[in-house]
Design goal:
seven-stranded mixed β-sheet, three-stranded antiparallel β-sheet, 13 helices, about 40% helix, about 15% strand, binds pyridoxal-5'-phosphate
């Protein structure tokens, strides 16, 4: 595997591979020794120092910086959140749907939380228009039909958690901007697997978190807001950590931070910040370009093998139209996931699709093991 330096070393940092073929990073990244040590360090600091708040706030700033580097943003454009949902809710709370421009266009690839928060804005005057999936993709033309001069926001999904299809974000963003609409991109399923550059993509907002390919646990996410928009957006979903001076402790006024911290809320998720930093550090050390190349080799192998075995690959075949997640149609996907688990292979499912999602710690032997297990259970594969 020429593209990935020290592949065996990195795999050895993830004890789960001593027991299992773990190939389910679209649900949850595997636990590394580094992330485990980060949690231990959090407890050791707590034990030794009691309440080192200055240091904990500094760790939060380090997380802001790490998120910013991952997407080529400035730290001042990043709000550190506890979930994507919290980030999208804070953003939605800034938008005014009382005028003519009151439409939210939602890609049907969106994670449910994005659709649900959008529909919650109906109480505030928003109209929601969905852009349907046709086959395994959503065409540019489908967005053309949905986006117009009444569109306030277009909510896109970078890589679909259902099928693994990748959206042509720059093209749809360009279209949305031509109509004066803003664009929110959910990159959760792409972060850590593809180089992401908010300047190149042109999006106005981007959300993601550490749970999956950033190798950490639940409870840490972020919202990127394009720098020149921050001052114009006034969240009503916020808290004391969104204030310009957190420790002003002023109960008589709301004085939002000048930067994207204004979208944050309460006490930051300190343990998750320790862990998230450790996970992101691994991704930075290996390098996202190298990870992308490695994943591409594995997904090519998997798709080629699955097709030779006659299976129905749902994920688009063109590399530019897919992410790290490959989906294969199944006749009884719950049974298939269980059968693979009996072979010590951990995968997941959505609808009737089997989801197989390699990361840098996977290798060609893992793919062969998956293909072999599918052969052994071919009556469950469509
Ligand atoms: C595309 C996508 N967005 C968002 C989420 C999660 O959102 P939240 O952080 O609000 O739980 C997930 C996975 O859980 C996801 O796959």
């Amino acid at each position: 595997m020429p593209l990935l330096p020290a592949a065996d070393f990195w795999r050895s940092r993830f004890p789960i591979f001593e027991q299992q073929t773990y190939i389910n990073s679209c649900s949850q990244g595997a636990l590394s020794l580094e992330v485990r040590a980060a949690y231990d360090a959090y407890m050791a600091d707590w034990d030794a120092k009691g309440s080192p708040w200055e240091y904990w706030v500094e760790r939060g700033e380090a997380a802001r910086g790490a998120f910013a580097r991952l997407i080529n943003a400035k730290p001042a454009e990043v709000a550190v959140m506890t979930s994507v949902s919290a980030g999208v809710s804070a953003l939605a709370s800034c938008l005014d749907f009382r005028g003519r421009r009151n439409k939210i266009v939602v890609s049907d690839f969106a994670f449910p939380t994005v659709g649900q928060i959008s529909h919650a804005q109906e109480l505030r005057g928003a109209r929601i228009v969905h852009v349907p999936v046709a086959g395994a993709t959503i065409s540019y033309e489908a967005f053309e039909r949905a986006i117009d001069e009444e569109t306030a926001l277009v909510a896109l999904s970078h890589v679909s958690f259902r099928t693994g299809a990748r959206q042509d974000v720059a093209a749809v963003t360009h279209l949305a901007h031509r109509h004066g609409a803003l664009v929110l991109l959910d990159s959760y399923q792409a972060l850590g697997t593809l180089p992401i550059d908010v300047r190149q993509l042109g999006v106005d907002f981007l959300v993601g978190g550490t749970l999956k390919y950033l190798l950490s646990s639940a409870g840490l996410a972020f919202l990127y807001v394009r720098g020149d928009l921050v001052a114009h957006l006034k969240p009503t979903s916020m808290g004391w950590f969104s204030q310009e001076n957190i420790f002003a402790m002023d109960i008589y006024r709301n004085d939002p931070a000048r930067d994207a911290r204004r979208f944050e809320a309460g006490t930051p998720p300190v343990p998750n910040i320790y862990a998230g930093l450790a996970g992101m550090q691994i991704i930075e050390r290996i390098g996202v370009e190298a990870i992308e190349g490695h994943i591409r080799e594995l997904t090519d192998h998997l798709i080629g093998g699955a097709m030779r075995q006659g299976y129905n690959v749902v994920t688009p075949l063109k590399p530019s139209q897919r992410g790290a997640l490959v989906t294969i149609k199944s006749l009884d996907v719950s049974a298939l996931v269980e059968r693979l688990a009996a072979h010590r292979i951990i995968v997941s499912s959505r609808e009737n699709n089997l989801r197989i999602s390699p990361h840098f710690y996977n290798n060609h032997s893992d793919i062969e093991r998956v293909l072999e297990a599918l052969r052994a259970n071919k009556e469950l594969v469509a």
